[in-house]
Amino acid sequence: MYLGIDLGTSEVKILLLDDSQQVIARASEALTVSRLQPLWSEQLPHDWWAAAERGIASLKQTQPQALAAVKGIGLSGQMHGAVLLDKQDQVLRPAILWNDVRAGAQCQALEKLVPQSRHITGNLAMPGFTAPKLLWVAEHEPEVFQRTVKVLLPKDFLRLKLSGEYISDLSDAAGTLWLDVQKRDWSDVMLSACGLNRGHMPRLVEGCAPGGVLRSELARAWGVGEGVVIAGGAGDNAASAIGMGVVANGQAMISLGTSGVFFVANDRYLPNPEQGVHTFCHALPQQWHQMAVILSAASCLRWVTQVTNAKDEAALLQEIEAAPAREFDHAPLFLPYLSGERTPHNNPHAKGVWFGLSHDTSRAALGYAVLEGVAFALLDGYRALQEAGATVNTVSLVGGGSKSRYWSGLLANVLGLPMTRHSGGDFGAAFGAARLAMMATNPGADVSSICLPPPVIDIIEAEVGKRDRLLQRHEQFRKIYNALRPLFSDTVRVDQNR
Predict the structure, then answer these.
(1) Fewer Cβ atoms within 10 Å of its own Cβ: the N or the C terminal residue of the chain?
(2) Which of 236, 267, 468, 490 does the annotation list as catalytic?
(3) Active-site residue 380, yes or no?
(4) Strands, E, within 275-327: which ranges?
(5) Residue range 129-179, pLDDT digits in tens
(6) How far is the C-alpha of 53 from the C-alpha of 161, rounded, in Å?
(7) Is the pLDDT of residue 498 over 50?
(8) Which of 185, 160, 153 has its CA nearest to residue 170?
């Protein structure tokens, strides 16, 4: 039996997986995000641990025998977050999250300080990454920076609580801007530029390798045996890819979660930082992947549901599907940049925009515009991936947004690619983490036999004749962004002091 724990932004998801890869039980615990100022996004690390403990307690209550049989634990989690610890492992401040974009000025300073940073890291310095966050802390909270002894990524804080060890995996570490992604090792140059060294960093392991052992006191409390192995694990997207079987060159995945990700597996290192493409290590040895990332995806649907006073997201989707298609021929266009944007714009100041409102604009049209705008942003990312040399053979669709067949079909039409939906896609990262635990506890296991795609629900093909009209609207979408881009930074006024 294997335990997969996925630390997301909105919830912690946990599942139990047996040796035949059947999901025995699931649990989820909600999380909240604090936004004290514009551009900020923070969470308390101890809230993550409390949520994980509640999830484990729930599994112990409902599946005590299955939990007792656990041999390995896999971790996945939201990337880029900065957890700062003192010498007693006490958290020094709230964790600064992946969608916190306060550190724009620090990105410019870092690339100026290390002109070869893009060559070393394979990535642009973006505010959401970890390194600029530490530069911001050093500048605005110097007493916190001086007391910082360890810097951990979110899932690795859970690992510390589980095992007492400072360990991270390469896929997650690749999102810090402190990793030499091609060499798969910390970069002393990048660390030094941030006033840090290897002593501040966790030990690195491959995602499918052992990365700690469960504490004895936790093993007793959970009712499991001694020596439960904790796998290296993965960043959430790499873990989802493992769960979806996206491990071979040319296999791809689109995640419609809080953020949106177009993920392509590679058998070699293929950076394209100038287009805002992320090039990271995969969770398997000598494998890499590329990602086009948009910061707001399913979170846009959640937002429009709230602002239009729809009953819930499912009800709004039903309203959109029930509306005559002709109602959307002149629907507003929506820029989905509610938290700034990464690929391809790398613009933390970008804002969400509805363009083309009229007295006739319905709630369904507003909702449709949001679904379409997210699809258009993913098309921009797909084109950046193609320019980076990515070849896409198959696409799996995962995340909460994948539950909507309508949205999946819209994506297929915009991208010109069939969308394959799988069962269990909403728990993909936790499932992938459990698979990594399976590999970590079975050295020499055949990756291809473990990392199979889950059962297919359906394959949604692009509809002939619909794409041309959508591409015309996409061109207008791009023109609106380019016209408004000079104005976005003028709308932001931030007090940089806490």
Answers:
(1) C
(2) 236
(3) no
(4) 278-281, 288-294
(5) 999 999 999 999 999 999 999 999 999 999 999 999 999 999 999 999 999
(6) 10
(7) no
(8) 185
